[in-house]
Amino acid sequence: MKTACLEILPEAQGMFYYYLNKIQYISETRTDEMVLAMNACILQFFVLLSEKGRQNSKSVYHLPQNIVQIKSYIDDNLQTISTVGEISAHFHYSREYLSRLFRQYYNINISEYITRQKISAAKKALESGSRVTEAFQLSGYHTMSSFISAFKKFVNMTPSEYRKRISDT
Fold first, then answer.
1. Residue among 47, 74, 48, 73 at smallest CA distance from 61
2. pLDDT digit string (tens) for 115-169?
3. How far, in Å, CA of 1 to CA of 16, rounded?
4. Is the dihedral of CA 157, 20, 116, 111 positive or negative?
5. What does the pLDDT look like over 27-48, one tens digit per residue?
6. How many CA atoms lie within 13 A of 95 on its CB side?
């Protein structure tokens, strides 16, 4: 990620990515409580940016290679991943250790990250005009009911309501 005055190394993008995702999610829910949460998150994001800006080039934060590989594996295999246990087995870590490690570096629960990425993929599909069944297939969920339940939990409406809302605008 580059800006006009600051270069952020790929290994350090996790925290920035987390706060930007959180800001986006909160802005989409638009409840009064969430506005306060969004403002706090934006403030945390800018504090993080200013901290990175104050660091000299010798003290730039780097993510360990294994945590970068774990996130890449999740992003590349999102449609086929069902559980955190599958990821931990792939990397030969215990489920608890993997969850703790991911949260330590990305400041988000690994299960929540997977769910948000799957819902994000479904939202993009719906926004591009795909039907709900196509979005369900792209999301990587195994059953339509679990897809609808997760979608409703994170977006506060069903996929069909979201699709209708997008098409009405």
1. 48
2. 999 999 999 999 999 999 999 999 999 999 999 999 999 999 999 999 999 888 7
3. 9
4. negative
5. 666 666 666 666 666 666 666 6
6. 5
